[in-house]
Amino acid sequence: MIAITPFLASSQLGEYEDKLLELYTADAALNQTIPDSIRSSTEWLLRLVNCFYSNRIEGNSTHPKDLLRTQERGESSNIVEHNEPIMELLAHLEAQIKAKGSSVAPSSVTSQDFIKELHKSFYDGLPESFLSIKDKDGKDAFDSDNNLIHIQPGEYRTHPVQVGNHIPPNSDELYGYMNWLENEFNPTRVHGTTRIMAAAALHHRLAWIHPFQDGNGRVIRLLTDCYMKCSGLSGYGLWSITRGFGRDTKGYYSALAQADKARQGGTDGRGILSDSGLIYFTKYFIDTALDQVKYFSGLLEPRMLGTRIDYYFEMRAKGGLPDSSGAALPLLKITARDIYRLLLEKGAMSRGAIVQHLGKGEQTLRPVFKQMHNEGLISAKPRHDVKLKLDTTSVEFLFPKLW
Fold this sequence. Notes:
Blueprint: H1 16-33, H2 36-57, H3 64-73, H4 77-81, H5 84-102, H6 112-123, H7 174-184, H8 194-209, H9 216-229, H10 241-247, H11 249-260, H12 275-299, H13 302-318, H14 335-346, H15 351-358, H16 362-375, E1 378-379, E2 387-388, H17 395-398
Antiparallel strand pairs: 1-2
């Protein structure tokens, strides 16, 4: 039996039990607020948010603007391969897409196979240079036999590591710890609001075990996203706890370090780690989650979003906004606002239905449809309904302070 408390009992949280209920209530309200017409675009945007902040925590401060410009230009693989920070972000985006596409069941989300696959999916496609381990001086790291140490995608480490002041378990102990984690945190065995407490503890316990040679932080945050979706939070994916971690990296690492502490006397739990440290991290986790769901609820509140949409299209009609590179955006007729607002309210519609609803001639709207489609504001493919999208130039106006 592993001598570590897996997660807390709700009675140890005090007033934070009320915060857990508040979190579930706010999440459900957000989920009901978001119209289906913009849901997929919002989830796409949240993947960018997660990508930016998770990699920022690891020291890659590449701004989403740079990533979006790369994608917009469709740069050749040769150019991208010479920009390692961009490659990291693209790999992280791909790992998120794979995790979402797998639709992992609650019974499998903590399985070692799934956790290993998250790690493997991040490193798949990255060049050899990403697999080499560096020492504290930035030079290649060697093992005791003077062999280069490499990351093995999807495989547990075989060498000792140190993370700050923390020395994780030896490599020969990893399967024991990971078997424990797989069973103890299985969400089918955890119920009600306790799942959020389990999500917090899982986040720390996996970081403490540090099963992979490198890439653990990104895997842990990807796993946390998947676990939160299995925890009864119907709106998760429309908000992101990773954003909260990434906006205060110092506070995030400090909270993790609290849970790293050894047990402080006989009243501080029964395992080798401090229960009071885990209480600290769990409260931090809940506060961060609640702060983020409130932020995104305000950001996506229909009336305020509508006001920002009006402002954006009115400025476009006057030629007063730049694109992501700073160049002036082309003029866009104010009718585009009416199309966008209609699709936001009604969802996907045929061109004929839009023409009829707006009372405009089809020839009048045709060039507007074409320009909006080319800019990524809508999808207006032939013989398909017109659908709303979020384009890279409007995101910062419609979703201020997101980054």
